[in-house]
Amino acid sequence: MKNLFQSIRTPNQGPFITIVSGLPRSGTSMMMKMLEAGGIPPITDNLRTADDDNPRGYYEYERVRNLPEGDKAWVAEAQGKTVKVISALLEHLPPGYTYRVIFMRREMGEILASQKQMLIRSDKPTDKVSDDKLAEIYTNHLAKVAAWMEAQPGVAVLYIDYNAMLRDPHPSLYEINRFLGELLDVEKMAEVVDPSLYRQRR
């Protein structure tokens, strides 16, 4: 299938790179699947396979984890495609490219509850940091990341509310479609939304 997003060229570079980001358990994997359904090819190596926490897959690319160590050659191959980059790694993306970031937001209590369930399933301790302290750390981190994105000339960001999208996906999907050039198949994206996977509802 032809990649229509390869035809969208920015003034200083080739096609833009679509980044899906956010805190862990904020809906990034679902957004990756939605964008794939909408027509943007994902960059993923499928090394982390689907499990009880993400039955539809994680859509991760292992080399993203190596951005802080300087493994950035692959970024050129991401033009016209989409890749998941957790919020803590955004600042390591190399300059010289045009990035359109879809940043997922989710109610903090749900994020903490979902992360705790992952730890329980992995037989890992859940009491190393209190929820209040972790929420404070995440809030400060999100403010820092937002300021960084605001200061980057090659970065445009669209914030998407995970909770609102699950209640009614179409308003968010129309917004995403406009942000990415009006080439997405919105109805196919909407079919990805599965309320049964919304398990840490608050």
The protein's oligomeric status is: single chain
Q: Could you say how many structural domains there are in total?
A: 1
Q: Whole-number radius of gyration?
A: 17 Å
Give the % helix: 25-40%
The total of beta strands comes to 4
Low-confidence stretches: none
The main pleated sheet reads as: 4 strands, parallel
How does the helix and strand content classify structurally? alpha/beta
- CATH class placement: Alpha Beta
Mean pLDDT: 85
Q: Give the CA-CA distance, first to last residue.
A: 40 Å
Proportion of strand residues: 5-15%
CATH topology value: Rossmann fold
Task: Kindly report the spatial arrangement of strands forming the biggest sheet.
Answer: 2-1-3-4
- Number of continuous helical runs: 6
Description:
- The protein has 202 residues and is α/β, with parallel strands linked by helices.
- The protein has a single domain, classed as P-loop containing nucleotide triphosphate hydrolases (Rossmann fold).
- Helix content is 34%, strand content 11%.
- The protein has six helices and four strands.
- The model has no long low-confidence stretch (mean pLDDT 85).
Concise structural overview:
This protein is of the alpha/beta class and 202 residues long. It is built from six helices and four strands. The protein is globular and about 45 Å long.
Give a quick set of tags describing it:
single chain; 202 residues; alpha/beta; Rossmann fold; 4-stranded parallel beta sheet; 6 helices; 4 strands; globular
